[in-house]
Amino acid sequence: MVWRKLRSGETDHEAVWLGVSVTSLVLAKCWLWMGFFQPSCVFHTVTGCPCPTCGATRCVRFALGGDFGAALAINPLFFTILVAIVLYDIYAATVLALRLPRLCADTLPPWAGKAGRLAAGIALAVNWAWLIWRGV
Amino acid sequence: MNWYYDLGGQRQGPVPEAELDRLLAAGTINVNTLVWSEGMANWTPLREARPTGSAAPATTPAAVPEGWVRCTATGRYFPPSQIVYLDGKAYSAEAKAGIVQGVIQGGELPDNDESLRTGPAWEQRAQLGFSKAIWETIKAVLMDPSRTFETMKRAGGIGTPLGFFFVAVVVCVVFSALYGVLFQGVILSIAPAETRQQMAVMAGAGAFFHLIRSVFLAVLLVVISFIGSGILHLVLMMLSGARQKFETSYRTFCYTMGAGLSLSVIPMCGVLIGLIWGLVGLCIGLAKTQGIETGRSVGAVLISVVVGCLVCCTLYMLLVGVIIAGVAGMSGGFK
Predict the structure, then answer these.
(1) Is A93 on the interface with B (CB under 8 A)?
(2) A contacts of B268 (beta carbons < 8 Å)
(3) Residue A92: what pLDDT?
(4) Is B280 on the interface with A (CB under 8 A)?
(5) B114 pLDDT exceeds 70?
(6) Percent of chain B's residues with pLDDT above 90
């Protein structure tokens, strides 16, 4: 990972992800506020056990309402992802506003992709175990 | 010497040197296409694998001496000594004034060479086959949108991208209906025996509802592709970002949102992930196909999303209002 200016014609990922994530969060807030249809979990209905994404809507609702403890307890992985998105957005807004060099992954070691997928799989499994144990 | 080349992520070949030149001249491959030949350690872009011979004769092979390179800005061929590579593209000294003007005006290198744009794989489905072309296009758009849209054909009709989008829509509605019917089936199997017959009738009605809904959804999504890309292009024009025709915006919309829709095969959250991934792809894709800065394409996409949501909300409220008025009318009107 290196800090550098964007090259000519290079995709500005900070602008793309900042724009899409902020818009998605605002639309999610509006969706919840207007009380539109919220899908129930088929997996939970059929098996009685939560699926790996159960509690995500409630997590967003608690987080947007400022109740971070409840948001963390209802789905720790999704809350962590939300926090990561907010931190990334702060970073992206800062480098875009101040025209600073970007953090670029030009040369990742060959094992990085495999390690990332493994870590994501483990995080998903541990989170699912937590949801089942908690009975979310 | 025989060559292997990459087409839509698939290894093709071996082909002799002359055939490689013919493919280059036909626009099937370009100087950025990865090639490999015996003795090479890795797959390498054609311009690096054959630095003095990456350009092919144009339409008349005798007209261009062997080894001459095509200028990206002018489309004419020059000896390699008169060519410089800027940002991976070949430019001639003759194009210097145009390049300088393009950089001053738009901050970008001029790129008039449409022959370099041959993708995505769906455009080559006659060679690759239907299923492989679909799979390679979805994979390329979702996993490497920058490279995919740098080489996407900006013209050539709306039928081809519409075909891709329609296939993705069919996949989406079929899987959506399948999950719905499966859910009803499971519920039916675990229901108490005394209520099972009543529930079976409801499940039959539910299956019919899914069928009607699927057809309605498929038509609606195709209509949305035109309305959505129309709004998008209009916003691009307002932001001075519409450097290409509506057709280019439509093609980009169909490939990105079509690939996103294909993620609906993932149960539960597939549609949501596909929608967000599609928006990201659309931001990147429009920047590459319209030749504008990423910030401007992000602005255009997000303004279009907000406008689209407002239109949907208005239509929803109108529909609810009409239903309430209808029900009130049937029950004797408001008191």
Answers:
(1) no
(2) 39, 41-43, 51, 53
(3) 96
(4) yes
(5) no
(6) 27
pLDDT one-digit tens code per residue, B304-317: 999 998 888 888 88
> What are the residues whose beta carbons fall under 8 Å from the beta carbon of B298, sequence distance 6 or more?
A12, A15, A16, A19, A20, B283
ipTM for this model: 0.83
Q: Which domain holds residue A22?
A: 2-134
By Cβ distance, the residue of A7, A16, A39 closest to B294 is: A16
Question: What chain A residue is nearest to B181 in terms of C-alpha separation?
Answer: A42
Confirm or reject contact between A40 and chain B (CB < 8 A).
no
Residues B303, B304, B306, B311, CA torsion sign? positive
Give whichever of A12-26, B146-160, B196-210 has the largest mean pLDDT. A12-26
Q: What is the pLDDT of residues A87-125, one digit of tens each?
A: 999 999 999 999 999 988 777 777 888 899 999 999 999
The distance of B301 to chain A (nearest Cα, Å) reads 9
Q: Is the dihedral of CA B163, B9, B47, B29 positive or negative?
A: negative
pLDDT-derived band of residue B54, with 50, 70 and 90 as boundaries? very low
Whole-number Å distance between alpha carbons of A44 and A87: 32
Question: Which residue of B107, B276, B293 is in closest CB contact with A24?
Answer: B276
What are the C-alpha distances in Å from A62 to residues A38, A56, A130, B253? 15, 10, 18, 34
Nearest to B142 by CA among B289, B259, B288: B259
Domain count, chain A: 1
Q: Which residue of B268, B288, B301 is in closest CB contact with A51?
A: B268
Alpha-carbon Rg for chain B in angstroms = 25
Q: Which of A9, A43, A46 sits opposite B87 (nearest CB)?
A: A9
Min Cα separation B62/chain A (Å): 35
Beta-carbon contacts of residue B89 (< 8 Å; ≥ 6 apart): B31, B72, B109, B111, B113, B116
How far off is chain A from B183, nearest CA to CA, in Å? 7
Interface test with A, best of B298, B302, B313 (most A CBs within 10 A): B298
Residue B293 in contact with partner chain A when CB distance is under 8 A: yes
Supply the pLDDT for residue B335.
53
Instruction: Mark out the alpha helices in B192-333 (DSSP H runs).
Output: 193-238, 246-261, 270-290, 294-330
Spell out the domain ranges in chain B. 2-116, 128-330
